[in-house]
Specification:
2 copies of one chain form a homodimer.
Chain A: E1 2-8, H1 12-24, E2 31-34, H2 39-45, H3 51-59, E3 62-67, H4 83-93, E4 97-103, H5 116-119, E5 123-129, E6 141-144, E7 154-163, H6 164-179, E8 184-189, H7 195-208, E9 215-220, H8 221-230, E10 237-240, H9 242-255, E11 263-267, E12 273-277, H10 294-306, H11 311-326, E13 329-330, E14 340-341, H12 344-354
Parallel strand pairs in A: 1-2, 1-3, 3-12, 5-10, 8-9, 8-10, 13-14
Antiparallel strand pairs in A: 4-5, 4-11, 6-7, 11-12
Bound molecules: 3-isopropylmalic acid (2 copies).
Domain Isopropylmalate dehydrogenase-like (chains A, B): 2-351
Function (chains A, B): Catalyzes the oxidation of 3-carboxy-2-hydroxy-4-methylpentanoate (3-isopropylmalate) to 3-carboxy-4-methyl-2-oxopentanoate. The product decarboxylates to 4-methyl-2 oxopentanoate.
Keywords (chains A, B): Amino-acid biosynthesis, Branched-chain amino acid biosynthesis, Cytoplasm, Leucine biosynthesis, Magnesium, Manganese, Metal-binding, NAD, Oxidoreductase
Chain lengths: 355, 355
């Protein structure tokens, strides 16, 4: 079991260290190797995704990823910015299926912006297609507008694209995930406006016929953005494209009030996967030892389950996390009156102890 | 002052009738003419936006629009579906500037999904570009994939496009609106991924230099979807493209908990405008006399202010709406214990009486 460890920028190093610590007490044999990624890699090697890092990632069974990004790279050309590392990994490894759970932990319900009754027990799984759509569609660029409202003016453009097989495979992922949950898939599209999402809707409907035990409904993306706020518990599995998934998964994560708790997985057809917390690199608190490592620790659990075929080890980590929450231990982001505030290291140690 | 009255489908007829009633007691001379639009127009004339309706709209100073859509048109070819009427009006009349306020009325704060302290006093103005972006960008369609992951497979595609002058004009609208408010513009983009939104960000930044008194910040769309949930009062004016604006304006509207109260305006360069409630046609409650007409009545107030140059009349309507709320009158959608439930007609009558 070969794991590529890519801590990245900001709090990345601190939180990944805790996840590694947890993996190391599981009595499993891992081969772990670290490499630079993101801004840290740009600083040392002139590129956010150096060849050596990509090679390590390709050869691993799974990638444990921290976070990338810092304001100081904002002025760089897009190709050198930290985020390009993550887009490059997705593309090069074909990580098309992004799992982003939005779970509201009972003890943390109060941290949500929403009224407790709307989010208590919330458990949504957003499945976002991750290698297609307008993120990677060619052609794209700048040019003189060939037509439109201002022909000849400076114009920028991108292309949204989806093929039938791309939609089919992500739809299968969603229906199969729903079978292990509440058997309800909501496919989010904008078929009333976009050709791409009319095909999306047609294909998801077709694939759905192979899963008669799973209830399928379709929702326009604007309505989905509303219903997530109005009645989040309506949702079980949400499947959508790369762009809409980017927006809705972050909205859903924030509904829980504790994005510092949410892991994510990005898988390819061979179950090789990249595992990372749903939150970012938080440069403002980097190096202070206060970041919440639980999302990354839970990402390691997802890694054990999805890519390394160690479901029992995954369970052990997840139970340990529940138990530290039950003990009242909280990092600053999830702290509230009456609980014990701990730092990044102490939280990692507590999870290790609970295992 | 020529007003084209387009009630449309579902509750459209009922709510527009109340707005017309209110306009008629203002002691102003309007020339009002009605026409079919949406599903109603398709049923009678075979097209959701008949030539005669478009002509009436073109020749009017303003359009008072109800709502369009009904499940029964879902199986029609996209070009015949009710929503095409609204897209056609936007495009043909060049209604590029969409104003969508998300206001939380003090008496209705409890109706929000969010905790009261997060939304009480909320007043966001979303300015959405409405005639560009992936909504109208050519080319679009279905084809055999020329390249990508599955060359030769059936593919659908759309084109996202913005030219510099399109971005400039909507940016000016946003900065000018912010000057009359809290002088804070948040421009929402996805410059880290999309060429189109790198140009967007560059141009908004440039235009912003002409408004040194207005604070400008930039936010990625996924982060904006989160911050709307986390700290909605951070925002004053939000300016964004057509697609992101569709999603974020609905999310913001739902935060207030009373989408039945929210008007909208869509203006062109000559201040000709289309005015409609932010909510939809609600076919499930159509014809029952229970729909909330206040969003449409408030849309008529926006029409008086933006297109008909009657700001005092607009003020009178807005004060009257506040006064009926203060009287405790509520339609079913905003009703709560201790207030008086009224129907569509009674609510319209109450506004008329308050004027
Ligand atoms: C960093 C950025 C390119 C990325 C995306 O848009 O996919 C991020 O927002 C995410 O959701 O993983
Ligand atoms: C009906 C639909 C085409 C429309 C849009 O997407 O613009 C609607 O959602 C809106 O926001 O006015």
């Amino acid at each position: 079991m070969k794991i590529a460890v890519l801590p990245g920028d900001g709090i990345g190093t601190e939180i990944v260290a805790e996840a590694v610590k947890v993996l190391n007490v599981l009595d499993l044999k891992f081969e772990m190797e670290s490499a630079d990624v993101g801004g840290a890699a740009y600083d040392k090697h002139g590129h956010p995704l150096p060849e050596a890092t990509l090679k390590l990632a390709r050869e691993a069974d799974a990638i444990l990823f921290g976070a990338v990004g810092d304001w100081k790279y904002d002025k760089l050309d897009r190709q050198f910015r930290p985020e390009q590392a993550i887009l490059g990994l997705r593309k090069n490894l074909g990580l098309f299926a992004n799992f982003r759970p939005a779970i509201c932990y009972e003890q943390l319900t109060h941290a949500s912006s929403l009224k407790p009754e709307l989010v208590s027990g919330l458990d949504i799984l957003i499945i976002r297609e991750l290698t297609g759509d307008i993120y990677f569609g060619q052609p794209r660029g700048r040019r003189s507008a060939p037509d439109g409202h201002f022909p000849g003016a400076e114009e920028a453009f991108d292309t949204m694209r989806y093929t039938r097989p791309e939609i089919e495979r992500i739809a299968h992922v969603a229906f199969q995930a729903a079978r292990k949950r509440n058997k309800h898939v909501t496919s989010v599209d904008k078929a009333n406006v976009l050709e791409t999402f009319q095909l999306w809707k047609d294909v998801v409907t077709e694939v759905g016929q192979q899963y008669p035990d799973v209830k399928l409904d379709h929702m326009y993306v604007d309505n989905a953005a509303m219903q997530l706020v109005k009645q989040p518990k309506f949702f079980d599995v949400v499947v959508t494209g790369n762009m809409f998934g980017d927006i809705l998964s972050d909205e859903a994560a924030m509904l829980t009030g504790s994005i510092g708790m949410l892991p994510s997985a990005s898988l390819n057809a061979g179950n090789q996967g990249l595992y990372e917390p749903s939150h970012g690199s938080a440069p403002d608190i980097a190096g202070k030892g206060v970041a919440n490592p639980l999302a990354t620790i839970l990402s390691a659990a997802m890694m054990l389950r999805f890519s390394l075929n160690q479901p029992q080890a995954a369970d052990r980590i997840e139970s340990a996390v529940k138990s530290v929450l039950a003990q009242g231990l909280r990092t600053a982001d999830i702290w509230s009156e009456g609980t014990t505030k701990v730092g990044t290291l102490e939280m990692g140690d507590a999870v290790v102890a609970a295992i």
